[in-house]
Amino acid sequence: PAIYAVIPAAGIGTRMQADRPKQYLTLAGKTILEHTLNALASHAAISEVIVALHPDDPYFTDLPVAGSPWLTTVTGGNERADSVLNALRALSDDSWALVHDAARPCLDHEDIDRLLTVTDRDDVAGGILATPVRDTMKRAHAGQATVAHTESRDDLWHALTPQLFPTGLLRQALTDGLAAGQPITDEASAMELAGFEVALIDANPANIKITRPADLPLAAFYLQQQT
Ligand code: CTP
Ligand code: MG
């Protein structure tokens, strides 16, 4: 079956506090969104890229990639999960959806290759890139900055993207999770709620999500390392 890349890019980047949504800031000669789109479109296994944009987005049409034959745009929604769901509606049930944040431009092909191995497994419905937690983890007293106790970091992982699932199952899981009012902050959380097994694929830690201003020089460094 076909593998489609779905890119939620409809956020406004509140925490970045820039003059435009962070995916349109330029790093290493290109916008963050273009780095992300190119990382996926240049992979041989990915047949098409669907990008979800803010309804009032004035920036996308000016990008050199806009109008590429492998690219489709859809309108995003209020939350990330709504943006992903809008993109999934355009895809056939029997395809695979590889969902990846626009704000993670440092993705490399080796990580995509490792994630794609889940399509051959029958012990899991799909999988996600993830990194094991390295720091000691503290649980605070509710709403306070004092330590209640130390959490074990055994078996604790950071969930990254891309996240890869069969399109029909993921569309249903996101629809049901949102309808139930559950917090759906990634695709895997919806699939877990629906009772599916999700593989954790140990990822390159360079695949950071650009969130705050201090993340920009770090991402620029990783992008320069790639070439
Ligand atoms: N996103 C989206 N639709 C939304 C919210 C977020 O497509 N309604 C996308 C963002 O564009 C980003 C990814 O989801 O590529 C991860 O979200 P995040 O890092 O939180 O980006 P923003 O929501 O833009 O940033 P902030 O939360 O600081 O406002
Ligand atoms: Mg956000």
UniProtKB/TrEMBL annotation:
Per the similarity annotation, which family is this?
Belongs to the IspD/TarI cytidylyltransferase family. IspD subfamily.
UniProt entry keywords in alphabetical sequence: Isoprene biosynthesis, Nucleotidyltransferase, Transferase
Give the originating organism. Alteromonas salexigens
| Keyword check for Transferase | yes
Q: Kindly give the Pfam families that the UniProt entry links to this protein.
A: IspD
Q: What catalytic activity is recorded?
A: 2-C-methyl-D-erythritol 4-phosphate + CTP + H(+) = 4-CDP-2-C-methyl-D-erythritol + diphosphate
What CDD domains does the annotation carry? CDP-ME_synthetase
The record ties this protein, via HAMAP family, to: IspD
Main EC class the enzyme belongs to: transferase
By what name is this protein known?
2-C-methyl-D-erythritol 4-phosphate cytidylyltransferase
Q: Site feature Positions MEP for the nucleophilic attack: at which residues?
A: R153, K209
Q: In this UniProt entry, which residues are annotated as the site Transition state stabilizer?
A: R15, K22
